User: What shape does this take?
Amino acid sequence: MTALKALLWDVDGTLAETEDEGHRIAFNLAFDEAGLDWHWSSELYGELLAVAGGKERLLAWWHRIDPAGAALPGATDAVRSLHQRKTAHYLDLVRRGAVSLRPGVLRLLAAASSRGLRQAIATTTTPDNVTQLVSATLGAAGPALFEVVGAGDIVPNKKPAPDIYHWVLQQLSLRADECLAIEDSAAGVRAAQAAGVPVLLTRSRFTQGEFIEGALADLGSLIDVEIDDLIHWHDRSPARR
Ligand code: XBP
Ligand code: MG
Assistant: This one.
């Protein structure tokens, strides 16, 4: 029986509902600052989340509304600059307390730590965003909870590609079946599954209606989930050797 050795946490939508009150607001602030007449409502943003990665999402939006402009030689640099400003706004929003951990997350993080489980992050978002979120919500000691942070452009292909999970497993020197991923979206579940990592689903605000398959279970909210529940699901995973 392969014992569970590490929890691999997704960030956006899993640790916290960052997308609507954080990332979406930051994108709109960057648009205003740049003098663009773009504005992403919650409803539109929920659609745009089909594209993982903020830079990739921006470029997909630009191609959708102005294909000629998006095809210009300087488009990639323009997206990179706009995304840097968005990230600055996001960091400021999180620093000022715009985002809280989802109910149950703090208790699970602490319980996993006290049970000797290693913990890591596997996310599409920008690395600085992770540090800021974890520090703002868990305090200065927060980042130390996660032995490895796999984030953003550290890998060439973002979720649903398995790259970020392969990278995190390599950094941890653990096998996929020794770990358990916790994800909120179809892309995240697909990424973990493609890497052979058993994965549990906890839907977020934007993924409630998504068709998601491949998770060991759909936990719903984490508010009543105990660490023994996570270990129980891992023990029943077909991926275990
Ligand atoms: C969610 C994402 C990220 C965020 C925006 O990441 O797809 O792109 O929406 O962050 P995950 P950036 O669910 O894997 O945590 O703008 O920094 O990409
Ligand atoms: Mg997510």
In short: The two ends are 7 Å apart (CA to CA). Residues 10, 12-14, 184-185, 188 surround magnesium ion (ligand 2) (CB under 6 Å). The chain is about 45% helix and 10% strand.
